[in-house]
Amino acid sequence: LCPTVVVTGPVFDAEFLSGGAPPLLMEDLGTLASSLKIGAFHPDSHDAGTYTESTTTTPWTDGTTTLRIWQHSNGNPQDAIVGVSAASEPLDLKYYSNKRSTVQILHSATNAPAFEFRNPPKFQGGNRRDAHYETEEVLDSYFYHPNTGPFISTRLIQRFGVSNPSPGYVGRVAAAFRTGRFNINDGITGNDNNDNGITFGTGKYGDLESTIAAILLDPDARTPVLDADPTHGSVREPLLKVLHFLRSMEYSHSSDQFLILTSLHSRIGEMAYDQKSVFSFFLPEYGAPGPVSSAGLVSPEAFAFDTPPVVHLMKGLFSLIKFGMTNCDGGFGRGRSRCYAWAEGDYRHTMGRLTYGPLRRNNPEQMVGELDVLLTGGRLSSESRAVILDALDDDRFKDDDDDGDVDDGKLRLAQQLFAASPEFHSAHNLIRLNDNDESREHSGPAREPSAPYKVIVHIFMVGGADTFNLLVPHSGCSAAAGGTDLHEEYRLMRGNVALSKGSLHTIDASSSKQPCDTFGIHPRLPLLRELYDGDEAAFFANAGGMKKLSAKHDYRSNHGGFGLFGHGFQARVQTVNGGRGDLFGTGVLGRLADALSDDGYLTATLSTGGSGTASKASIVRGNPYSDTKTSSMGGTFGPTPFDPTPSVRSMRTIIDSMNDATDPLRSGMFGESWSAAMTKSLDDNDYFFELLNTVHPTTKFPTGTKLGSDLRFVSQMVKVRRERGVERDIFSINIGNFDSHSDTFSTHDSFFGQMNDALGAFRKEMTA
């Protein structure tokens, strides 16, 4: 081991403490103050006369940061206390010791310093008071970090309808967060002095009144012309669309029970208080396939664009309109027996219904205009308006009582078509192509398969599975590892989360070049040992995303934007691997599939997806112009009939015409993303529903687990490969969330046990 020494000295020297100017090498007082790392108690907490504020030196201020200095009676500069505050909050001081503590690692031959780093703070053993103070200081360091304002501002702006805010927009909101003030004229050219504007906020750092006011009242949020910018706006969150529809269409609850929207997160991808991960429902850096990701932009809410959530959202809205709050045809409500016996518009057996009625019921155009204001914010395109009005001009809808009113059936049809319009699902203007032939493709099998079939099933363990406990160095390690007992090292490093040798399933690695003759597999995964011993399984260890050996001082330069400490970044590295150039936004398996397609194989990729942060099909996303067929379909909520009792026979055709291709240069990208996702989701749902009804597994798969349902679904897809016209299949499945902070044993026992049972059933079915 190299010799080390701790060197302690003052941050500010005696000359400065006695009235000298701040060192000229420092750019400003904020940079100067950042050199202070060790906290101190308030000077008045010491005995009288111990500390005296230096009136000749302080307060120093540069208009942004203020310093005040108290000198110790012993005259030692290291014992001085420095108070730091924002210039706008001079009384909100944080107190630091004027002391710097550095650990130096000395060269073994010369004893000269070879490397040094700041002496890290340490909690005092058993001292709760000091631990509390240290924790408060850590939280304050996060809260007052210069990146906190822009970070929070960006995330909040995204939640309020702008997925890709401009730097100026973020800067103005961050300024409101930092200063605690926002004037309604902020950001308006010619109003730099904020004249005649209403001011929001208390003037304190982190004030949310000023922050939210800045988000909602900034010119980027209020300027109508930005609706014409294809990159402005967002995809709307699924839960907000459901609540919007309930409120705008005047839902009235007729039951004595509370309104319960059943299994909404599992079905549409979002439900209040039901997020399955600490990272919320959507990844903020996610970009929908197509024009959004191709432009390097993000659309977090498009995270719920898997086929099951899209289809179940549409089924739920249509059922709500036609039958009220029930479970009929995929409704959001709880049970209603004998759904087949009740006609559309019969609300006698429902828990609640929509009660909205147009002001001018005898005029379809006026009714559509009202619905446009209530449901699409006045952004309904002329093409969508024409499609809706043409659908309402149907002899089936009659004025039954001759009172001049629009038939209720027309209102229900109009509401369904609004719910299917891209304008309802996005927040900007849409412009369709003038060519009426630009409808979306509905693809089927390209040709009869001829090559031998091969398949990859990729299982992604979401949330950071503890694979150090999946494959463990066991025995026979010392000689191969240069005298190091790797199991003992594993046991010491892992502490109380290490697995005992006796609990592991051992496998022989003596014929390999691995450092141990024997490894151990997690006790809940006996199947892996069976597969390994039968030459049906192999392990690839230490396959991470880092390109070269790195330390703290150079890992950023070595790896660019690689987010070593972020779940989302790490997942993206493993699944997308930082696609670049013409591969931007594509996934590892998607690029593999494209290569197979380029070689002439009939190739398909499918993500079982689902909903929420733990499930996304980025890994199978390939070049959109490739011949690879890409789908997302879950096993838990698999394909089911969409709208089995349509209000008009041509309903699906009408929906398709409302979601035809848009102008790629002038129309909003997010509406285009929704239309492409919805039409493909409905196509895939109908196709897979009919296809999978022809085949049923002979093996009993585990029930009640997503992985069991997904692998059962994959086994069905494999069996109908010829009907699907596929020679190469790539499936992506997720299991998790492994993001355990304090219950790692129970979490991994549960998920590894699920993997063992589901893989066992899948293997049996594939070899049957």
Task: Summarize the SSE layout with pairings.
Blueprint (H helix, E strand, L loop, with lengths): L3 E6 L4 H4 L11 H5 L17 E3 L6 E2 L3 E8 L8 E6 L7 E4 L2 E7 L6 E6 L9 H16 L4 H12 L7 H13 L2 E2 L15 E2 L7 H10 L1 H4 L15 H11 L2 E3 L10 H5 L22 H4 L12 H17 L28 E3 L9 H13 L5 H11 L15 H13 L1 H4 L28 E8 L9 E5 L10 H9 L10 E4 L9 E4 L4 H8 L21 H5 L7 H9 L12 H11 L4 E5 L21 E4 L18 H8 L10 H24 L13 H14 L1 H4 L3 E8 L8 H23 L2
Parallel strand pairs: 13-19, 17-18, 17-19
Antiparallel strand pairs: 1-7, 2-4, 3-4, 4-5, 5-6, 7-8, 9-10, 11-12, 14-16, 15-16
Helix pairs in contact: 4-5, 5-6, 11-14, 11-22, 12-14, 13-14, 23-25
Low-confidence stretches: 578-582, 611-615
Summarize model confidence as the mean pLDDT.
Answer: 84
Principal-axes shape call: globular
Report the sheet with the most strands, covering strand number, pairing sense and barrel closure. Answer: 5 strands, antiparallel
Q: Please report the distance between the alpha carbons of the first and last residues.
A: 59 Å
- Number of E strands: 19
Overall SS class: alpha+beta
The share of residues in helices is 25-40%
Q: Number of DSSP helices?
A: 25
Assess the beta-strand content as a share of residues.
Answer: 5-15%
The radius of gyration is: 32 Å
